[in-house]
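Lab manual, section 2.4: Encoding a predicted structure.

Procedure: take the sequence of the chain (479 residues), apply the prediction step described in section 2.3, and record the output as structure tokens. A sample record is shown.
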Amino acid sequence: MRLLRFLCLIAFTSVTLVSCKKDNKIDEGDIAYFGGEVVNPIKDFVIIAKSDKALDTITLDENNRFIYKVKPVESGLYTFRLWAAQGLEYQMVLLEPQDSIMFRLNTMEFDETLVFSGKGAKKNNYLINLFLEGEIEDKEVLGLCQLPVTDFTKRIDSIRNSKLDKLNYFIENYDATPAFSEIAEANINYDYYLSKEVYPFVNYVNSERKTLESLPEDFYSYRKDVNYDHKMVMDYFPYSSFLKYHFENMALAKYFEKTDDSVFNIKSLDYNLIRLNLIDSLVTDKELKNSLLMEAAVEFITKSKDVDKFDPLLESFKAKCSDGHQQNYVADLVNSLKSLKPGNPIPQVEITDFKNNQKTIRSLIKRPTVIYFWSTAYRTHIDSHKKANELKQKYPEVDFIAINVNVENDKLWRKIIKEYKYNTKQEYVFKNPKEARHQLAIYPINKVIILDQKAKIVNAHTNMFYIGFEDELLGLLNR
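Recorded output:
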């Protein structure tokens, strides 16, 4: 079956590329062709982007295929996004001048079924295999982090050296381009660096302070080689993941130098101010710097319950971030969270029920209530609904209300509710999703709001999967 599908793909690729070249003989120079076939498409379009900037939205034809000419093509990583069984998925493709690359995938198993063909396919199949291997290794590394530092280092050094040997063989035998070589080597190195950066956070033998203090002097020697403005891999998964933990780790070390704390506290204002300062001082690329600053600011604001600490963090963020839109977003988030203080009534946010009746959240509240959110873009709605059902059985005195945060059309929302047999009497959508997400500061998506019987806020940003969540419910019921 796999062979048959592969042969079909080659046939499709050959026909498509030949026809494209015949129709475009006058096109020469810095162009590339990119296309594909989507099996079991959820929606009939694919979005092509470069550095988070959408280039085009291409509609699939009657055979669920498309072809797109990138002109001019800038050598580097491009993103293609489409709806899959798990929600909105995306993957990357390396495009260079004169490439003619096609892909085929099944939306039911997005990454696992992705295969490239055509001119430029070998390098991309190599990169997707690196990605899939990395996902498996991530779980392995978490286990390795429990080893003593010497054993841990030996194991991850072995993983890295094996990858580099395979890459060198590929480069020598397949006429690899400089762009591919740079990206593939960066993938391997940043995955390796990331393993070392997360070690203090997931090693349970000691506190983070003791773990950091026990590390050999040369444990982070690679940091002198880190490129904080690595243009070619600016949007690449391994690079962005590494930078997040890298700045967290360095900020933690500096924080320990100034305090007597011994454990990592993401809610510490001083720690997060140090983190923002490090990003600002080391990253020069504006887009990357702004992205890292915003990620750090939003993470602190949404996890801290002390609203009095929001303004100093916001002030520091705005002084360093040059993107006005991002500044406004974080400022709006701060204002929303301030209005969601415990004791305040839930805002009069408008919602629509399964029968298209317009209501407000406040009008639904008759008893202690848990409001949880989900999205059609993420398969996590299965876990959240399952957890809510478990809690309903244990706490029948509490109402559980589910609100879809970003439904694009009623049909998709209703289809999912029927498919998973969710209780239609407890399912709602926002009348104005964008406005409501700001008002209720819905980030991350698994955030939960607890209300008392008078629709007053008990906790505006907790989580049903939090180990102390049931204690919060018991505390509310015993008032």
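Check your result against the sample. The mean pLDDT is 89.
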